[in-house]
Every structure is written in C-alpha cells, then in structure tokens.
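Structure ticket #2291
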Amino acid sequence: MFHFLRQIYSSFKRSKDAKTVFANFGYLSFLQIAGYAFPLITMPYLARVIGVEGFGKVSFAAAIIVWIQTIADWGFNLTATRDVAQNRENKIVVSQIFSNVFWARCILTFLSGCILFLLVLFVPLFRNNFLVIFTTFLMVPGHILFPEWFFQAIEKMKYTTIFNLILKFLFTISVFLFIKEKHDYYIQPLLTSLGYVCCGICALYLILHKWGFRIYKPQWDSIFTTIKQSTDIFINSLMPNLYNSFSVLLLGFWGGSSANGIYDGGNKFPTIFYNLQSVLSRAFYPFLSRRQDKHCLFAKISIGSAVTGAILLVILSPIIIKYMLGEEFEKSVIVMQILSFSTIFLALSYTYGTNKLIIQHKEKPLRNLTFFSSIIGMCIAIPLVYFYSYIGAAITVIISRGFLGIGAYWLSKKYNN
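Resolution: structure written out below.
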C-alpha cells in the first residue's frame, strides 16, 4: 500500500497533467468538505425547526425538480465538458460550444417549466405543494447562469470552489436568520436558488469579460444539432430518475411527508459519499478525456474510497442519525445502512461508465444499460414502496444501482477486449 501511494506521489511530481488533476481534485475536495461542514451546522437546527414533515416536503419538491434539472442539463455536463476539454486551445470553437449549450439549456428549461406548470394546475398533490415546488424550480435557471461544467472543462475548478463557498456561507447564515417556524420550510430551497442566480451572474462576468469568451446569437440549426448529439447522454442521465426520484414521489403519494422525511434523513449522509465519487469523477474526467492510459489509477482510487466509505457509513449510522437529526429520525438508520452499499455501485458506474465508455464515445451501449437498469428499478419500486415504504425505496435504489454499476464494468471490459 505504501509503495502504491509513493508511486502516485512520484507521478504527480513529474507530470504537469497530474498536477492539474490533483489541483482540481483538491479544490473540489475542499468544496465538498465545505459542503459537508455548512450543512452539518444547519442540519440539526432545520431538523428540529421544520421537522420530519418539512424535510419530506422539501424532498418531494426536489424529487420533482430533479427531472426538470435533468432535462435542462440534457447531458451537456458530460458531452460539452468533453468537447471543450478537447478543443480548449481554440477560443472560437469553445465559444461556439458554450453558446450552443447556453441557448439549448434556456429552451429546454422553458419547455419543461411549462410542463411543470400544467402539472401543478391539474395534480392535487402538486397544487398543494406549489410554493415549495416553485421555489425549488428557481434552482434550474440558477444552474444555467452558473456553468459549472465549463469551469470543469477548462480545468479551472478553483473558481467553482470560490463561488460555491460564498454561496454556502451566505446560505448558512440565512437559514438561521429566516427559518424560524415549521411553515418556513419553503425558504430553504428559495435561499439556495437565489444564491445560484447571484453566483451565476458573477461567473458569466468572469467567463465573458475577463477570459474573453463569447455568447453568440442563437443559431437554431447548431442548437438543435447540439441537443441531438447529447441525446444519448441525456437518456443515460434521465433514466435513473425512474428509480431514484420516482421512489420519493411514490413515497409522497402513499406514505406522506413523514415517510419522505425518514427516507431523506437516511439519505443525507450516504449522499456525502456519493458526492465524493462525483468529485473524483469530475476531477479526472477532462484529464482522462486526453489520457485514457491512466484509467487504472483512477479505478483504484475511486473504488477503494467507495468501499471504505460504505463500511464507515454502516458502522456509524446509529450514532450519526441520533446526534445529527434527533430521535424523531430514528427510523432513518436502516435507510442509511441500506443506501451505504450503493456507494460501491456508484463508484463502478462513474469509473467504467462516465470515465470510460462516454470518453470512448460508447454512449449508446451505456444508454441501453441505464435504460434497462432504470426500467427494472421503476418496476420494482411500485410494489416495494407500496408494501415497505421508505425501506422499499432504499432497496429499490441499491438494486438499480447494482445493475448499473456491474453492467458498466462488464461493458467496459467487453469493449476493451
């Protein structure tokens, strides 16, 4: 083990690319640490002020908006990142990619927002929660204004870190200032949305005025071509919602806000380790787009950290839930323990799907795998959530991610052979 770590350190010292990856990983890791630290400050307060039901309503709204966000992203966070990373020395080409993605996301957000408006009008459960759904929806235009994928593509993640730290700091202070009662639960997503909008305006100023990139006028043929070329990745990103957020929606219909709150409480801390896998994936993705020969090193780091995280989560879950969320969330322990193992399957998916198959332009096989895994998840979610509530939702997620992670590994080995 010591010899392996010494080899990694030596390669970082010799390679400029490795130093860049390490720097980006450092910035993203620091950002994630801050992302854990600030919620750890506010989470006990929110758990006691808005309670399980408030948590559940926010979780229900987030499960709806994740579909809108996925449509607005349309897989550009992978395809556009890859394309910019491979053409980053040509400012004109990069500006064209950036412009097409920006306008495409605006169009997709408008269309999906119209669909959401109709759902709020005609679905009673949506209509009863329209305020928290609307405030959560504001995150979507905030993400468009704040093009995190672009900073990742040009490997300047320190700016993402700076903007996000400012956002999280202001959000943390605002939680204590503005959330005082149980009915203030909708203020939580509102604060996050406003923060993204403000940071997005600053980010666009940096990209357009300081670095000299441009947003060209909409060229509809180019925009629709951009959307078409990213459709496979979009499907690959959308389909997991069939078992993930779909389970939360079913919980909302059959179990109410309390069941959603218990599930969300158990999902909070595994999400920390999911984000760690995302950090590794995002830090290596532009580099691996140019240097696939370094994939084995990334695989060892990614899967090793996932196994370690899963073990720690299972062991510490009773203590974490008790002291961070309180006795009201005691039933969240079993949810947290079940979801802990999905960190391993997510690591396999990121390692052999995102950072292998997509980089090798094998989007269609990965899309088919994701479609198959998600359909299975959707089918088993209905009986599992109906009969076993939040436990059934957790089992649905781990089974679906198991199919996806193991399948991505198998596909990667198949195409290598």
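Closing remark: Residues 42 and 176 are 8 Å apart (CA to CA).
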